[in-house]
Design goal:
Helices cover about 25% and strands about 25% of the residues. It is built from six helices and twelve strands. It is globular and about 65 Å long.
């Protein structure tokens, strides 16, 4: 089957991510010495600074949206994990008509993608970049000299044996509360022929913003049910590049910047109308 795919435009959403509580996104624990930290954070190998992998941010947004919309967990990922993927249960049963119809109606798979072997699949619309500590935040952590490890704190947790009452302390590495990562970047592609109506591609930006709100109300990374990982989106900026004028500087959409996610949500309908006009 031949597919003709052409980019119509791209929407760029940039923002800072503030760690409201300590943030733990796990790294490789290989080589940790006896008595060292049990769970380390992921670090940039060149700067040794913690960062937020794009895969962690994108995976959490998708996971929360799948739960929010009650989507089937039907695609195996790794040894025991599952995600939602339109058409997974219809594979091998001839032309994937049911899977295609399910995909056309699914905001999550349209935005975040499905495996390329699906005969109805289109390229993933959403790209999520890795996000590093801001220079100001990194300098602040450097200057204080009060972190347990470079740029991070060590949080000790104690589990209690319910039978013997024996304490079992564990040490977890976290980026301290108040640290800021940014600019984070989400790139959302509009393809030629995509529907830019309320129910179409521009309308699906609502799902992405829903995911951001769900994440603010949840947690990023690990240890979230024990206090870690509360984050806030700040200094949000929305820009667009169109196919007709792609080499020009990206154009601000809406007010240009939004101090918080709540402010972006308040302006979202008008922002989407403007995008439809620009991309028409």
């Amino acid at each position: 089957m031949t597919k003709n795919i052409q980019i119509k435009g791209r929407v760029f959403i940039t923002f800072n991510i503030k760690a409201v509580t300590g943030l733990h996104i796990g790294g490789a624990d290989a080589g940790i010495e006896i008595g060292g930290v049990d769970k380390t954070v992921v670090r940039d190998p060149l700067t040794n600074r913690p960062y937020i992998p794009g895969s962690s941010l994108k995976g959490k947004l998708r996971s929360l949206l799948e739960k929010y919309h009650g989507l089937k967990q039907n695609q195996r990922m790794g040894a025991s994990g599952y995600i939602h993927s339109c058409g997974a249960e219809f594979r091998g049963s001839g032309p994937d008509v049911k899977g295609k119809q399910e995909y056309l109606e699914c905001d999550v798979c349209q935005v975040f993608g499905v495996p390329g072997e699906r005969d109805f699949s289109t390229p993933t619309r959403l790209v999520v970049r890795d996000t590093h500590l801001t220079p100001a935040s990194a300098a602040r952590l450097d200057e204080t000299g009060r972190t347990d490890l470079p740029y991070t704190e060590v949080k000790t947790e104690v589990s209690i044996d319910r039978v013997t009452s024996a304490a079992n302390p564990r040490q977890m590495e976290r980026v301290p509360a108040g640290s800021v990562f940014g600019p984070a970047e989400l790139i959302y592609t509009i393809y030629d022929g995509d529907d830019c109506s309320t129910a179409g591609d521009i309308g699906r930006l609502t799902a992405l913003v829903e995911g951001m709100q769900l994440l603010e109300d949840d947690y990023l990374g690990g240890l979230g049910t024990r206090g870690s990982g509360k984050i806030a989106f700040e200094s949000i900026r929305v820009q667009v590049r169109t196919k007709a004028n792609y080499l020009a500087e990206a154009k601000d959409v809406g007010a240009g910047s939004f101090a918080s996610l709540a402010e972006l949500i308040a302006h979202l309908p008008a922002l989407q109308d403007e995008l439809r006009s620009v991309l028409a």
